[in-house]
Design a protein that fits this description.
This protein has 299 residues and is an alpha/beta fold. 24% of the residues lie in helices and 29% in strands. Strands 1, 2, 3, 4, 5, 6 and 17 form a seven-stranded mixed β-sheet that branches. A five-stranded parallel β-sheet has the order 8-15-9-10-11, with helices on one face. The longest helix is centred in the C-terminal third of the chain and has 21 residues. It is elongated, with a radius of gyration of 21 Å. The two termini are 16 Å apart.
């Protein structure tokens, strides 16, 4: 049995493991994919203290090595359920793991457009990460579909790579800050009040259909489409144990507590005003500290 089971090995999860091990608690991290979470795809990080210019991959690798060196155990399995009780049991496809406490740090995943052939064209012209896949479209024509600032940032990033970037925003106008960021970017074409309603392809993406707010439809030939419509928290498997807000985020405060004693949340799956590396790390530290306090109180 472990003192702390952490579900998710992103920045929040691994920071929780660091704090748990430094408190001399046994820690197991369960990760469904690969350690590091979404930051791995970041080309460059300039807003994390003392690490200006580090790549997302290098940041995740350093945190992983630190966590391993402290003695935390990693298992690459998807957590499917948590059985509550005096001892918590985390169920995976491979078995069950028992812990005195559990920290849910599952993060969030890319939002989708929900189009018929979107999944089949992912990696064949459709992408959800400009910094990951932008280099594949050097000198070509791409589109960015989104609802706000994240789409604008992706378009600006791609403008240094692609020959032409069509920025498709659902709102009628970008906000003032976003509009100022686009100023002077001659190879970005702004299409507002529209959404992507169809993907056309011949093995790979060849174009997109746009539907404007007035119902008019147009075709736009593109080599790539970058989808930037927000993220979806991965909390549904644990909805019975933690309160969720209307968007599906864990309704927990800065203390990272949940309605279930001994179960905590940390990171981008938690309702918060700012989702950054520093706040993910902060959550991990707070959740692990709360878990240690919970165990101490029960001795």
């Amino acid at each position: 049995m472990y003192d702390i089971i952490v579900i998710g090995a992103g920045t929040a999860g691994m920071t929780a493991a660091v704090y748990g091990r430094r408190a001399n608690k046994s820690v197991l991290l369960l990760e469904a994919k690969s350690y590091g979470g979404q930051i791995v795809s970041a080309h460059r990080i300039d807003n994390y203290p003392a690490e200006p210019g580090i790549s997302g991959f290098d940041f995740a690798q350093k945190l992983y090595e630190q966590t391993k060196a402290l003695g935390a155990e990693f298992k690459f399995e998807r957590a499917l359920d948590i059985k509550d009780g005096e001892v918590k049991t985390v169920v995976t496809a491979s078995g069950e793991y028992q812990g005195r406490t559990v920290i849910i740090a599952t993060g969030s995943e890319n939002g989708r457009l929900g189009l018929t052939n979107e999944k089949e064209l992912t990696g064949r012209g459709v992408s959800y990460c400009a910094s990951c896949d932008g280099a594949f479209f050097r000198g070509r024509t791409v589109a960015v579909a989104g609802g706000g600032s994240s789409a604008v940032r992706d378009a600006i990033y791609l403008a240094d790579i692609a020959a032409r970037v069509h920025l498709i925003l659902r709102q009628d106008t970008p906000d003032a800050e976003d509009e100022s960021l686009l100023s002077g970017r001659d190879n970005i074409s702004l299409i507002t009040g529209s959404r992507v309603t169809k993907l056309t392809a011949d093995k790979r993406l060849t174009g997109i259909e746009l539907t404007a707010r007035d119902g008019s439809v147009s075709e736009l030939p593109v080599d790539g489409l970058f989808v930037s419509v927000g993220r979806v928290p991965e909390n549904q498997s644990f909805a019975g144990l933690i309160d969720l807000d209307s968007a599906g985020y864990a309704a927990s405060g800065e203390d990272c507590l949940t309605k279930t004693p001994g179960i905590f949340v940390a990171g981008d799956n938690r309702a918060k005003t700012l989702r950054q590396l520093v706040t993910a790390a902060s959550d991990g530290a707070a959740a692990a500290t709360a878990a240690v306090k919970y165990m101490t109180a029960r001795k």
